[in-house]
Design a protein that fits this description.
binds flavin mononucleotide; globular; NADH Oxidase; 7 helices; four-stranded antiparallel beta sheet; 44% helix; alpha+beta
């Protein structure tokens, strides 16, 4: 598939068919992820692939986190809808920054800069996964609402470092239109001699 076509056609998918994703497709998506560029070629990403019965456990932990937030009368935003989408998705991949530390721990300036570099690299890997999935006819949802159960999910996943995001994958059971984008003139500025 043409790259620009994949970029233009990708949507966040929140309704998935009850249909498994073949292992080869998951491998292809992870292969795309690890081909992303990374600062100093550090490849700071780590992935945990959740499938099968483990998905229900993952969603249960997520919902416990949401309930605790509700009990503390904190804003739960879109988390319930996200948990529903994760419940339908046959595969969710959690992405960690191996060199990162939890957001609430103290960061030196050096650590903050290193985090910025590593998080950009991880963002590239995540976008590669979304585009690879799109090329394979698989829908995806990039998820940060997993932060509502940050410590609980991290412990359950048994992964060190900083949890950056999750991405759910599955065959789309909806065809959402494109969400609006700010025009280029609003977000980009040219500096050139001839203006
Ligand atoms: C870093 C990041 C975090 C996101 N977290 C969530 C999330 O937790 N739940 C959700 O439903 N969508 C989430 N999204 C999807 C955005 O809502 C979506 O990308 C945006 O509305 C634009 O829509 P589109 O992806 O269909 O173009 C996230 C996207 C990004 C890039």
């Amino acid at each position: 598939m043409d790259v620009l076509k994949a970029i233009a056609g990708r949507r966040s998918i929140r309704k998935f068919k009850d249909k498994p994703i073949p292992d080869e497709a998951i491998q292809a998506i992870l292969t795309a992820a690890i081909q992303a560029p990374s600062g100093k070629n550090r490849q700071p990403w780590r992935f945990v692939v959740v499938t099968g019965d483990k998905c229900a456990e993952m969603v249960r932990i997520m919902r416990e986190g949401i309930a605790e937030k509700e009990a503390r009368e904190e804003d739960i935003g879109s988390t319930k809808g996200t948990a529903r989408a994760m419940e339908e998705a046959p595969v969710t991949v959690f992405v960690f920054n191996q060199h990162g530390v939890a957001p609430w721990l103290e960061h030196s300036v050096d650590q903050t800069f290193k985090d910025v570099v590593n998080l950009q690299s991880i963002g590239a890997a995540i976008q590669n996964m979304a585009l690879a999935a799109q090329g394979l006819g698989i829908g995806s949802l990039w998820i940060c609402d997993v932060f509502c159960a940050y410590e609980e999910l991290q412990e359950w996943l048994g992964e060190e470092g900083q949890m950056v995001a999750a991405m759910s994958f599955g065959y789309a059971d909806e065809s959402p239109g494109a969400r609006p984008r700010k025009p280029i003139r609003e977000v980009a500025r040219w500096l050139s001699d001839n203006t």
